[in-house]
Amino acid sequence: GAGVSQTPSNKVTEKGKYVELRCDPISGHTALYWYRQSLGQGPEFLIYFQGTGAADDSGLPNDRFFAVRPEGSVSTLKIQRTERGDSAVYLCASSLTGPGGAFFGQGTRLTVV
Amino acid sequence: SQQGEEDPQALSIQEGENATMNCSYKTSINNLQWYRQNSGRGLVHLILIRSNEREKHSGRLRVTLDTSKKSSSLLITASRAADTASYFCATGQGAQKLVFGQGTRLTINP
Question: Which residues of chain B does A105 touch, with a Cβ-Cβ cutoff of 8 Å?
């Protein structure tokens, strides 16, 4: 595709449930980022992949959050035992290796009820 | 955690005026980037300035970087209603990790 695609665009889940958020980066982009953004705040860094490996996962808030990128392209952010505080827009971005801007998807709005 | 701090948090100006937003950061960086966000969803990359550059232009955008003061500014000249959005600075650290600030909400009044 032409841009970064995130699915679903909206997800409502019950507290305690497990969710998966998917990101399809731009073809050929080796770097992939996940961010979380709450209303009125800037994007909060979660994890950064270079190829298949997580180069930096220091932003994951706790062990309920996990992300994979098994083939170096599509990535899945997984949240176990969701809590109401996990409600936010989850943004994915990709970029080529080296200096340059990141391209963002439209995000997944997660609501935990 | 957020590193960058944008100033002001909100800015409202008349169409045609210039808008200036500032960003401060705390650690060493490889580059600094500015992004625009409409309606709280996807961000759009506007401009990147490397740590060894002091000023960069792109259309109506002008970015400056002062690494000694750990600060940057984004100037939008001749503002238009379509420039209404939130603007974020992001610092490129280490192996391309991007850390965003809290953003400036810019409103252009017709």
Answer: 42
Whether B35 has a pLDDT exceeding 60, the answer reads yes
> A interface toward B at CB cutoff 8 Å?
4, 31, 33, 35, 37, 39, 41-45, 48, 50, 55-56, 89, 91, 93, 95, 97-107
Spatial distance between the Cα atoms of A62 and A22, rounded to a whole number of angstroms: 19
Tell me how far apart the terminal alpha carbons of chain A are, to the nearest angstrom.
Answer: 33
Inter-CA distances, A84 with A10, A35, A87, A96, Å = 15, 17, 6, 34
Task: Report the residue from B1, B2, B43 with minimal CB separation from A104.
Answer: B43
Contacts of B42 in chain A (CB under 8 A): 4, 91, 104-107
Structure tokens at A93: 């971005």
Buried b (16+ CB within 10 A) or exposed e, B3-40: bbbbeeeebebeeeeebbbbbbbeeebbbbbbbbbeee
Of A54-58, A61-65, B96-100, which one has max mean pLDDT? A61-65
Supply B40's token pair.
Answer: 């709280």
pLDDT at B2 over 50: no
Q: What is the mean pLDDT of residues B68-95?
A: 91
Q: What average pLDDT does range A50-62 have in this prediction? A: 91
